[in-house]
Amino acid sequence: ALSLPFDDLLHVKTKSYILDRVKEKLLTPFGLRTLSVDSPSYIRSYSGKQPESAYNGIIHPYLLSHYTTAYLKLNHYSKQARDDVKYLLLNFEKMIKEDIIGFFPQYVNSLPPYSPAGLPDHSLTFASYIQIRTKELDSF
Predict the structure, then answer these.
(1) Any bridge partners for residue 88, and if so which?
(2) Rounded to 5 degrees, what angle do the CA atoms 74, 77, 82 make?
(3) How far is it, in rounded angstroms, from Cα 32 to Cα 63?
(4) CA 67/CA 2 separation, integer angstroms
(5) What is the per-residue pLDDT for 96?
(6) Separation of alpha carbons 36 and 22, rounded Å
(7) pLDDT for 61-77, tens place per residue?
(8) Which long-range contacts (CB under 8 A, 24 or more apart) does 8-15 make?
(9) HSE (side-chain half, CA atoms, 13 Å) at 35
(10) How far apart are CA 121 and CA 5, in angstroms?
(11) 113-128 pLDDT tens trace
(12) What is the mean pLDDT of residues 84-109?
């Protein structure tokens, strides 16, 4: 909700609390987990034979664009906030450039070593990455 245009419906303290909780419970170097590791329903890695594994804890890299947009908005697109987002992208970019060489994974398994899972070239992940780099950071 914080990344959407109508986030002004929430108080700044509420936005800050939500973002802090997301950072604490869901943020990883490769995106957001869909469920906290504290949940009894948490599943740490994706299995095509277990469909619920895609939504019970696995990392969805495309969600990183929502987190970074909310973070930048809450911090008024300050230089420090932009630098924080660039730093956050480093591990993701390393995985794309070195580990899986140009592919944008659909999912990433939720705990180290954070291996890619699902479709190897997911357009939503790619589009989200491009959005962060161009729309939010004005850079490439």
Answers:
(1) none
(2) 110
(3) 6
(4) 8
(5) 77
(6) 9
(7) 999 999 999 999 999 99
(8) 12/74, 15/70, 15/74
(9) 18
(10) 29
(11) 888 888 777 788 888 8
(12) 82
- What is the SS3 string spanning the chain? CCCCCCHHHCCHHHHHHHHHHHHHHCEECCEEECCCCCCCCCCCCCECCEHHHHCCCCEECCHHHHHHHHHHHHCCCCHHHHHHHHHHHHHHHHHHHHHCCCCCCCEECCCCCCCEECCCCCHHHHHHHHHHHHHHCCCC
Give this prediction's pTM: 0.86
Which amino acid does the sequence have at 82? R
Residue of 31, 33, 37, 24 whose CA lies nearest to 68: 31
Picking from 138, 139, 17, 25, the residue whose alpha carbon sits closest to that of residue 74 is 17
Residue type, 131: Q
